[in-house]
Amino acid sequence: MTQVFQKRPKVSSIVHSDQWVWPCSMLIDLLEIKNHMPSYNPNSSLEDCIKWLPTPDGIYSVASTMASLKTPHPLVPWFELVWYSHNIPRMSFIFWLAIRGRLSMLDRVHLYNPRVGTLCVLCSSSPETHAHLFFECAYSKVIWSHLKDMCGRPWNGHSWPRFIVWAAQRWKGKSPSIVVKKLCLAVVVYYI
Ligand SMILES: [Zn+2]
User: Fold this and answer.
1) How remote is the CA of residue 162 from the centroid of ligand 1, in Å?
2) Which residue ranges does the record assign to the Reverse transcriptase zinc-binding domain (predicted)?
C-alpha cells in the first residue's frame, strides 16, 4: 500500500506474481482507475511502458489527438459553398459563422446585455438579426443588387436561409465562374 502512494509510483507497485494487488484503502482516483482496468492479468517480466491508445502502434501524434477529439457529423449541404480550394479562409470562417447564425448580431448580444439596443446600426429600422443584416437591410440590398446579374437571382422576397440552400444546390464544381460566385458571396458577407 505504501508503494502506491509514493511520489512516483509505477504500475509494478500494484503487481505481485502476475496479479493485480490493490491496497486495502484507496483514494477515489485509484478506485476509478481500478474500475477501468483491463480484465487481463499483468506480466511481471515486462517493463512498464506508456502507450497512446488512439494509435495502433501506441505512439502519440497530434493528428491522432485531433481525430480522437472530433465527433463525426454528416456533411451539411452547403459545405462546398463555404469551403473550397480557392477560398479566403478568414472570409469563409465569417461566412460559416453567418450561416450557422453565430455572429454577434445585436439581437444575440442583447440576450446577454439587455442595455444594448437591437436596432440595426445601418438602417435603424429593424432588429439586427442575421437574416436582416445580410438580406433584408436596405444597405445590404444595395450591395446584393449589384451582384444579382452575376448570381442570376433577384434578391427581394427571399430569405437568407433559402438563398443559402439555393446557392448550395447550384454553385457546385470547381469551374472559375462558380469559384468567383462563391468568392463574391463570402466577400460580401465579410464586408457587410
Ligand atoms: Zn438594417
Assistant:
1) 19
2) 60-144
Distance of CA 125 from the midpoint of ligand 1 (Å): 6
- pLDDT value at residue 156: 55
pLDDT digits (tens, 9 = 90+) for 99-120: 998 999 999 999 989 999 999 9
Phi then psi for 16, rounded to 5 degrees? Answer: -140, 125
- Phi/psi at 164 (5° precision): -60, -45
* 189 Cα to the center of ligand 1, angstroms: 14
Separation of 121 CA from ligand 1 center, angstroms?
6
pLDDT in tens, 68-94: 888 878 889 999 999 999 899 999 999
Residues 80, 160: Cα–Cα separation, whole Å: 17
